[in-house]
Each structure stands twice: as structure tokens, then as C-alpha cells.
Amino acid sequence: MAVAGTSESRIKPESIAASDEPHEMDVSPQRPSASRPLSVLAWLATIAALYLARDVIVPLVLAILLALLLWPILRRLRRLHVPDIVSAFICILIVAVLFGTAMLTVVRQGQRWLAEAPQTVERVRNMLPQGRGSLSHLKDAAEAVQGLTQPEPARSPLPVEVQSAEPAYTIIGAGSHFVGAAVIVFVIAFFLLAFSDTLLKQAVETRSSFAQKRNVVELVHNIESGISRYLATITIINIGLGVVTAFTLWQLRVPNPVLWGVLATTLNYVPHVGAFLCMAILFFVGAVAHQSLWAGTGVAGAFAVITAMESYLVTPLALSKSLQLSPLAVILAVLFWGWLWGIPGALMAAPLLTVMKIICDQFEPLEPLAIVLGGTTANGGGVRGRQAI
Description:
By secondary structure, the protein is mainly α. The protein has three domains: about 55-125 and about 170-205, no CATH class; about 220-320, no CATH class; about 325-389, no CATH class. It has 17 helices and no strands. It has helices at about 1-20, 20-25, 35-50, 55-80, 85-115, 115-125, 135-150, 150-155, 165-195, 195-205, 210-250, 255-265, 275-290, 295-320, 325-340, 345-360, 365-375. α4 crosses α9 and α5 packs antiparallel against α9.
């Protein structure tokens, strides 16, 4: 019976293909009805895992993006016969020194600003218009009635001063966590750079056919060239935006212009959303610096002009031959990754979307998604139409 069953299973596909009966030609494996709910559950489980393991995954993703950014420099140093380990160490050391210098500058400027924060908030509150209409009188009457209904001890409580060191411990804990994450990022990025060729060979050896091996090499090359060029271009543009912002604020006599320039550089990695947040902060800073809401509006307006020129002129020209992303897709990515991983997720949203776009360009079944992410038409979409990447 087993032999007969085996022969029947071997003959059945051929007999179905050769048969002219319509009811046999329609025979096809049906997708199980439970597969779609299981797929939804699998996606939900993946999102939950990404959220729960964010303390491990976020430094790893940052390290991968940093390695992709530094890979072209590593290749140029390799042409000068510099060993990969030495090149990786030099690149990571330069980035770490620049990062540490920027953080120290921001911390020093931030300490001065935080020391004046209570007086700043009080000055802003005094600048706000104080309405004395019917609603204000109604509020005063309600407070008077509430005071009459309260007992005497509750009406005049004794002032009690409580001193707590919890904020200091919170700041120290957050600082140590940040430094530890930065060290992890630099260490992982160093090993990714130093052993990049070995990792690529191992990835190629896992494939069986030559076509699969070629696809792996092409995918890695496209991701490396595309994301490194994108990140390098965006980094240069953001640094230029920060320098122009700091110089403009210095001309407008806004205190701590370096701090706000660094803030503008950092927030501009979050497209659209970061510029709006920075503009709101600069409105607050300008109003406090000049004791006028109109001055705050002028400072925010100056930054709005700068970021508009960057968003609609400089960046499109710089990325005209590189990867373009749909603004709607970028905003949705910022909302999703920001919700999932907080501020680091919002900062990495655009690079992660770029990697997804490059992967979709590589595989023909995913080209419709690549068109949606890129905001282009079918004639301009796809990796075949974007050889500049």
C-alpha cells in the first residue's frame, strides 16, 4: 500500500497537468484560512519583541547605520594599503572624539540654560496676556466659595520644605545609560567595519545557487552605497543648517546660539517633525531673550525661512540623483518608530525607511511597495530606474 501511495503521489501532478478536464485544471492548493490571522499575530509578536528588546536592538541598529556611513571611508583607506582593523579604529576614534566634544559643549550650554529655567518660565508667564473677563471673575468666585467651604487648617497649611535627591539620581542614571549605549554602539560598529569582508563572505556562503549569491552581493552593495551616500549627504546638510542657525541666532542676540545650532542639527534628522519642534523651541527662546512675544515670532520666523530653504531647495538638489522618499511615508515612519523606540527611533526612522526602500528596489515582487515609499511613478521607480544609488 505504501508503494502504491508513493507512485500515485508521483504521478498525480503529471496527470493533472496533462488532463484536459476543467475541474482538474482548477485544482490548486488552497491557502489555510488560519494563515492570515497567524500572520497578524506574528507581526504583533515581532513588534512586541522590538519594543521589549529596545535596549539591545537600538544600539545594534545605530551601530549598523554608523558602519554603513563609514564604509566608504574604510574602502578608500584600504586602497592606501591600510589594514581594515587600523582603518576601523581610526574612523571610530574620530567619530567618538567628535561626538564627545559635541556632547560636552551641549552639556555646558545646557547647564547654564537649565540654571536660568525657573526665571525664564516666570518671565514667559508674565509676558502672556492676562484676561480679566467674565470667565476670570467666575474663576475668582469659585475659588472664594471653595475657600469658605474648607476647614480652617486646610485653608492655611503650614509650609513644609522637602529636599529630595531623586532628580540628581535620575540624571546620573540617565547619563550613565546614555554613555553605556554610546560605548556599545562604537564597539559594535568597530567590529562591523573591521570584519566587513568576512561577514559578507559568510553571508554569500549561506546561499546555495550562484544567482542567490549574486543577489546577496548586489543587495549589500546597494544598501552600502545608498545608505552611506544618503546619511553622509544628510549629515553635511544638517551640520550646515546648524551652523547657519547658530550664526543667525548670534546675529539676533539670542543667548547660547551654539546650543540651539546643535539642537537644530540633531532634530533635523527627524524630517518635517524635527523642524517644527525646533521652531517652537526657538520661539520660546527668542521671546525670553528679548522679553517680547513678537521677538520670539521673529526668531522662529527666521529659522522657518532657513529650514524651508534647506527642505525645498538644498536637500532636493543634493539628493536629486540619489534616493528620494515620500513625505507621507517619512512622517508615518517617524510616528511608528518614535512610538516604538522613543527619541532614538524617531531619529532612525528616515535611515530605516531608506534601507527598506533599497531592499524593495532590489526585489521585483516588492517594487509596488518601493513606488509607494518613494512617492514616484512606475516609470521612475525600482532599482533599474535608480542606478545612481
